[in-house]
Amino acid sequence: MERLSTGGLVLGVNENASYEQSDLRLAAGDRIVLFTDGLNEAEDADGNDFGDDRLVESVVANRTQSAAALLDSVFGRVRVFTGSRFRDDATLITVAIR
Fold first, then answer.
1. Residue 81 near residue 44, CB atoms below 8 Å
2. CA 81, CA 83: separation in Å to the nearest integer?
3. N-terminal to C-terminal alpha carbon distance within the chain
4. Per-residue CA distances from 97 to 12, 31, 33, 86 (Å)
5. Per-domain boundaries in the chain
6. 98 residues of the chain, pLDDT tens digit each
């Protein structure tokens, strides 16, 4: 697992935002997972965050699945954790490299 450290604000949020660029070599079988903070900050009934660790664990555990199945598995785990109650937008994009 490699977390990207360069970038910038979400596209379209601020017309004056600046962005950084870097290169990353991808190979067949790799997955790209993009998400908003509505996923890792999603809370259970006791106010506990789903968190980065659970999110990474969910992705790694399902990394061999297709992009669609990976998305369903990860989003499903967050839904179960929160009881399907989200307090913020929750966006998840998965890409499978062939």
1. yes
2. 6
3. 17
4. 26, 6, 11, 30
5. 31-96
6. 888 877 777 666 788 888 888 889 999 999 999 998 899 999 999 999 999 999 999 999 999 999 999 999 999 999 999 999 988 889 999 999 99
Q: Which two tokens stand for residue 74?
A: 């990860």
Three-state SS at 40 = helix
Q: CA-to-CA distance for 85 and 87, rounded, in angstroms?
A: 7
Closest CA to 68 of 30, 36, 94: 94
Q: Two tokens at 8?
A: 């910038």
In 10 A of CB 31, how many CB atoms?
19
87/64 Cα distance (integer angstroms)? 30
Q: Is 92 helix (H, G, I), strand (E, B) or coil?
A: strand
